[in-house]
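Researcher: Here's the sequence for the chain we discussed earlier.
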Amino acid sequence: MATQTERRPHAALLEAAALTPHHEALARLLWHAELRGEPVEPLSATFPELELDDAYRIQAIGRRLRTAGGEELRGWKVGLTSHAMREMMGVDQPDAGYLFESTVVQSGASIRASRLIQPRAEAEIAFLLKGRLEGRWTSAEDVLDATLAFAPAIELIDSRICDWRIGIVDTVADNASSGMAVIGEWQDAERLCCDQLEGCLTVGDEQVTGRGDDVLGHPAEAVAWLVRTLADQGERLEPGDVVLPGAVARALPVAAGQTARATFDGLGEVTVGLVEQ
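Model: Thanks. This is the structure I predict for it:
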């Protein structure tokens, strides 16, 4: 349950953010937007002095606020790892965020549309780790050695920023535009070459396709990038973590009453529906 402080009007939170330091005020602004289902103006427009380091600090404070409220870390995500997604969002580099237990569900789940603000579906190849990954020199080979299984996945990305008008600072501060992660059946990693998997995402009449190697040349490269990025923040990946490396194709909007379906040849299918209630 959010306290009255977390539910203050946006204007009051913006006023607080104008003070220095303002990282916590901006983290609370984004949390407030999530709780109320009311997006805010881009942080980068309101506070043009914000840099990438500021954005990761805001994200870390947001994570702390949520864990203090009882959330538990389940894994991590990488975004904007394919050319299609970077072009779609107008961003020129990947971003990293976290996944909570409450945001990771199994294939076939029905999710209340009101839980999200402006969701879009992405087709991804999820990693399940068996080994620890840490350090600034982590390679894709290290990632594959530490991976137990792959699964077809749909990430329902979401943004607490109005109309998806995001720059890299906005999406990083907003936990890499994370929403929900929908995971299909896990398959033994040793028998699959995840970079060669062909994927297809369908929402209504729209369909997009891609391959594992559309994700930074190899999905494991995206996970290695994540490990190196987290190392700068004193973080690491642990056995049992679920990691989403980014979409193989552009995202598709999804609304209440619609089902998103992703299939990967040799890996399987994953579905999720949005419902009114």
